């Protein structure tokens, strides 16, 4: 007696059989794959935008340098505001590894677009006396006009930060503004200064004219210094005692690039939260796939019964529905990766960042969809395989 052996289901045959269910119900397949796609797109976009932001920050730090240190007065033991000695800038500049040192001093004057603006509407713009070598040390640049020099620093001229110019409604140098009860001529506008953001909302005047017209006391309120890259930590350790030898405990020393790194760390924490939301979306998509496959089993009982009557084994039926679930998830995963990459490039282009999508994120995204799809397809495949030919062909 000859024993009938079921034909083996080759991979090509399996893919063709698994695709039949998707081709015959395209709308349902698209909607189910969309759930997976949204989850993967969210995860890819979060990782891609985070990586693009980090790459942009790395490039900024590489261009601006991480060797800028800032010295500011702290507080006395009685809680009063301390001040730095007038000679502190020169003393800091004499530290061996220091490459440059400069300073600004806060003035109590207010600045307005004209003399008809009410006194309370100063727009939050700070007026600072500035040394003429400020740009080189802090890594700032002029957007239009020119910066203060030895000649203009003695006259009522002013350079505006990027935000200050926007608040005052000034787009180009040559106009006059009302500053400390005097008319000052705007001679320049700065670009945004990432390592010294306080300068964005500043109006910078010359050190001599600040003392003669604005009652400036001559004490620097912020000293900016550049040190050799290999000696930044050593310089940072001695800056307080050097800037104010009598009261080194009343001096605050900071590294502006650390603030940018802290900002990046905060973004990383937020990204973790968004990744969690993407994972939830992916899980919901997986439940949608499972639901679709269960309904598909119920609707295709006749097909299952016919295949079993023609000799298909339980394992082949199980494999068919399992492969169909994987194929459905794979389609959603590929669509989600493409959508996530497109979102990342669009957002990075809008922000002016270099677009970066890690390879591990795209590969991991597709792998996650296969894992979710595999888990979602286990129960429907097992349920389809349990149906006997007579049970499957029986009227519901």
Helix content: 40-55%
Described by strand count, sense and barrel closure, the largest sheet is:
11 strands, mixed
What is the arithmetic mean of pLDDT? 81
What is the general shape? elongated
**Alpha carbon gyration radius:** 34 Å
Taking the alpha carbons of the first and last residues, their distance comes to 37 Å
Q: How much of the polypeptide forms β-strand, as a percent range?
A: 5-15%
Strands, helices and their partners?
Layout: H1 11-24, H2 26-64, E1 68-73, H3 88-93, E2 98-107, E3 111-112, E4 126-130, H4 134-138, E5 142-145, E6 157-160, H5 162-168, E7 176-179, E8 182-190, E9 202-206, H6 207-213, E10 222-227, H7 232-243, E11 251-254, H8 256-299, H9 301-309, H10 314-351, H11 359-386, H12 389-393
Parallel strand pairs: 4-9, 6-8
Antiparallel strand pairs: 1-10, 1-11, 2-4, 2-10, 3-7, 5-8, 6-9, 7-8
Helix pairs in contact: 1-10, 2-8, 2-10, 2-11, 8-10, 8-11, 10-11
């Amino acid at each position: 007696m000859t024993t009938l052996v079921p034909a083996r289901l080759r991979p090509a045959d399996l893919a063709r059989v698994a695709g039949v269910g998707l081709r015959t119900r395209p709308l349902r397949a698209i909607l189910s794959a969309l759930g997976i796609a949204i989850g993967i797109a969210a995860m890819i976009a979060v990782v891609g935008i985070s990586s693009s932001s980090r790459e942009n920050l790395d490039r900024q730090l590489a261009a601006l340098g991480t060797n800028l240190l800032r010295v500011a007065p702290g507080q006395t033991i009685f809680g009063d505001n301390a001040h730095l000695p007038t000679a502190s800038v020169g003393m800091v500049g004499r530290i061996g590894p220091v490459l440059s040192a400069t300073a600004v001093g806060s003035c109590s004057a207010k600045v307005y677009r004209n003399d008809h603006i009410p006194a309370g509407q100063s727009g939050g713009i700070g007026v600072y006396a500035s040394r003429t070598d400020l740009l080189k040390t802090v890594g700032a640049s002029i957007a239009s006009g020119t910066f203060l020099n030895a000649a203009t620093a003695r006259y009522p001229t002013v350079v505006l930060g990027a935000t200050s110019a926007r608040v005052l409604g000034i787009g180009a140098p040559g106009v006059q503004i009302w500053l400390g009860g005097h008319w000052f001529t705007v001679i320049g506008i700065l670009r945004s200064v990432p390592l010294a953001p306080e300068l964005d909302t500043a109006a910078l005047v010359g050190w001599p004219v600040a003392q003669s017209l604005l009652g400036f006391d001559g004490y620097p309120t912020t000293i900016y210094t550049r040190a050799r890259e290999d000696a930044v930590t050593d310089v940072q350790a001695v800056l307080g005692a050097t800037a104010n030898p009598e009261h080194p405990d009343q001096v605050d020393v900071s590294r502006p690039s650390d603030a940018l790194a802290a900002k990046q760390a905060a973004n990383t924490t937020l990204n973790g939260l968004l990744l969690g939301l993407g994972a939830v979306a992916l899980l919901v998509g997986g439940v949608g796939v499972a639901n679709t496959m269960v309904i598909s089993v119920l609707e295709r009982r006749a097909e299952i019964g016919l295949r079993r009557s023609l000799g298909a084994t339980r394992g082949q039926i199980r494999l068919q529905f399992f492969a169909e679930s994987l194929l459905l998830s794979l389609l959603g995963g590929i669509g989600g990766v493409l959508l996530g990459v497109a979102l990342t490039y669009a957002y990075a282009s809008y922000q002016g960042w270099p677009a970066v999508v890690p390879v591990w994120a795209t590969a991991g995204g597709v792998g996650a969809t296969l894992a979710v799809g595999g888990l979602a397809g286990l129960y429907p495949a097992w349920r389809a395989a349990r149906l006997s030919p007579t049970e499957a062909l029986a009227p519901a």
